[in-house]
Amino acid sequence: MTSVAAQHLPFDLDDPYRSLSLNTATTKRWTLAEAVDGAARAGLGAIGLWRDRVDEIGADTAAKIVRDAGLRVSSLCRGGFLTQPDDRQTALDDNRRAIDDAATLGTQELVMVVGGMPDRKLAAARARVDERLAQLAPYAAERGIRLALEPLHPMFCADRAVISTLAQALTMAQPYPAETVGVVVDTFHIWWDPALEAQIAEAGAAGRISSYQVCDWLNPMTADPLLSRGMMGDGVIDFTTIGRWVRAAGYRGDVEVEIFNADIWAGDGREVIETMKQRYRDLVLPALVG
Amino acid sequence: MTSVAAQHLPFDLDDPYRSLSLNTATTKRWTLAEAVDGAARAGLGAIGLWRDRVDEIGADTAAKIVRDAGLRVSSLCRGGFLTQPDDRQTALDDNRRAIDDAATLGTQELVMVVGGMPDRKLAAARARVDERLAQLAPYAAERGIRLALEPLHPMFCADRAVISTLAQALTMAQPYPAETVGVVVDTFHIWWDPALEAQIAEAGAAGRISSYQVCDWLNPMTADPLLSRGMMGDGVIDFTTIGRWVRAAGYRGDVEVEIFNADIWAGDGREVIETMKQRYRDLVLPALVG
């Protein structure tokens, strides 16, 4: 089969799963080959890859597996770790490897989880992200890869990512061409933002929406906030409203489902995908169909 | 002794605890009389009261206890619960009682925790806050009480408060005079906000900062996010930077310490206050002294 990477088809209710992408974090126990097989058998159009599963077999082999299955790679996750004061070179080297891997895998989008706070100086940590983004952007641009800045929920500001809102990600992206630095719209992280509609519109107008990722916010939260994500429909997020904003912003790319959830991880991967398809069709897709 | 409510003294390094206020939630096991006694013996200038401890003895008795101890009441916590579609009258009645109690207690500031989402319709829940604020504001204004809108951390948007940023609180406050609707600057809830400096400046310029509340963000978080607050210095918040912004915004009121933390609750109240004083003097006060 030929590569279908970067072919973004219009959303279509008659072919609802062409734009649906399984992120390998959702079926965490599966190897890359198993996840690709599961996604392809389920009729999905794409897969989002985490580097741990890519590294197990190497990017070349991973790319061949995906290509042979006829899937797109909607994104590679993740670059980042840009906030530490001391290991600048290590971080830059690792990100360049991630950029190379993204190119090998045939995806344009490298999701960037930029890192938390090494100390109490939040502004300084954020400034380091700006600096290191400037050091990475030329390398990414030469290889046709977009650094997709992911705002993480503010509860992860200290330990995982000092980018906390879509507005902030857009400000950080602004110095660069839209094809070099983008932003991730992940419902779990930004659904609460009172200014979200305007931010999604701005991201779309700038051509910077790298990925639309969906999962739900469970209420009450789980004891580990990292695992408090749920299948669409199991929490409080209104995918119709946010989906309309994403649609109105012009996004026509894949929709990735990335769920960190101990119960889902313990379940059967094929059943998880079937539930995901049903929820996507019922709750997410209608708002995205023009 | 005469009431010293609403006398806001300048911050003073030589009399460092005149503007320090013990919120009764910090010494959760203490009755109101015990907390007042503890605060007064420790030389604090004020106390922040939760309604549960006021209700146990009634507002008149509570007011007398505080007055006799020579303390100010920096705020009453809390009104709110404005987001439910069905119990509008109950909520309004309860808030009017809270306004009356605030007036009896001699504080101007009634902290409003507006409530979470009864369903998936976030915008509708926020609109109900606007509507019910309009219904409460005249009653508050007549009694000289300010409704102090508290943005809660976005991780509480679903279950506790649909006001998630200071910017949003200011927008909600905007239709009302500054003496009728204000905002709470609580470090735990808003420290992560990339736009915080401008928002604090705006709140100050509008004369709307009802309260500056300090406690730290623990990293890693505790299993119950509600209890993930820590004593200043035990987490990641930079009180110097935020304190300078609060100072520059013109705030000269009391500084409340409100910590929900199981370990602190289990400790001896007098020791908690001594630690609080030391951390306040070392980490919080210097930035507030002009």
Mind explaining what this structure looks like?
Chains A, B: InterPro entries: IolE/XylAMocC-like, Xyl_isomerase-like_sf, Xyl_isomerase-like_TIM-brl. Chains A, B: This is Sugar phosphate isomerase/epimerase. Chains A, B: It holds the Pfam family AP_endonuc_2. Chains A, B: It comes from Nocardia speluncae. Chains A, B: One of its GO terms (molecular function) is isomerase activity. The structure is a homodimer of 290-residue chains. Chain A is α/β, with parallel strands linked by helices and 290 residues long. Chain A has one domain: Divalent-metal-dependent TIM barrel enzymes (TIM Barrel, Alpha-Beta Barrel), CATH 3.20.20. Chain A is 42% helix and 16% strand. The first copy, chain A, contains eleven helices and ten strands. In chain A, the strands form two sheets. Chain A has an eight-stranded parallel β-barrel with strand order 1-2-3-4-5-6-7-10, surrounded by seven helices. In chain A, helix 4 links the parallel strand 3 and strand 4. In chain A, helix 3 packs parallel to helix 4, helix 8 runs parallel beside helix 9 and helix 9 crosses helix 11. Chain A is globular. The two termini of chain A are 29 Å apart.
